[in-house]
């Protein structure tokens, strides 16, 4: 029984809100990686997460059944959540404000050429490993 006077949001509204916050937190990490007060270990993980999150290429292509969306639904949100937890609260609040302002001005998230290069490097390394195992 809902005792509040406002109806609870629908599942689709909650999912849209979650996706919006996730997108904002990806951009937040982009700013946090450049912030002087962010600990080195949070920066290290943040650089990886931001490069992958902002990459125009997925590690597992979306057309691969089930697995294609696994990184978008589980891996990336989990990594963003973990990295956010490593950032001091004051730094996180400041970077979230910067992210909100940037997204309001730009209207979209940035993209990362380094992230695309990282994904391509992983694919090349995996292909080389499979080729090596297959031929030896």
Radius of gyration: 18 Å
What fraction of residues sit in β-strands?
Answer: under 5%
Describe the sheet with the most strands: none
Average pLDDT confidence is: 83
Give me the strand/helix succession. Answer: HHHHH
Low-confidence stretches: none
Number of DSSP helical runs: 5
Number of strands: 0
Question: Can you tell me the number of structural domains?
Answer: 1
By secondary-structure content and strand pairing, the structural class works out as: mainly alpha
Estimate the helix proportion, in percent.
over 70%
Topology overview:
Layout: H1 11-32, H2 40-53, H3 67-86, H4 89-106, H5 113-135
Helix pairs in contact: 1-2, 1-3, 1-4, 2-3, 2-5
Key phrases:
136 residues; mainly alpha; globular
How would you characterize the overall build of this protein?
- It is a single chain.
- The chain is an all-alpha fold and 136 residues long.
- The chain has one domain (14-135).
- It contains 5 helices and no strands.
- The chain has helices at 11-32, 40-53, 67-86, 89-106, 113-135.
- The longest helix is centred in the C-terminal third of the chain and has 23 residues, at 113-135.
- The N and C termini lie far apart (65 Å).
What's the quick description here?
With 136 residues, the protein is mainly alpha-helical. Helices cover 71% and strands 0% of the residues.
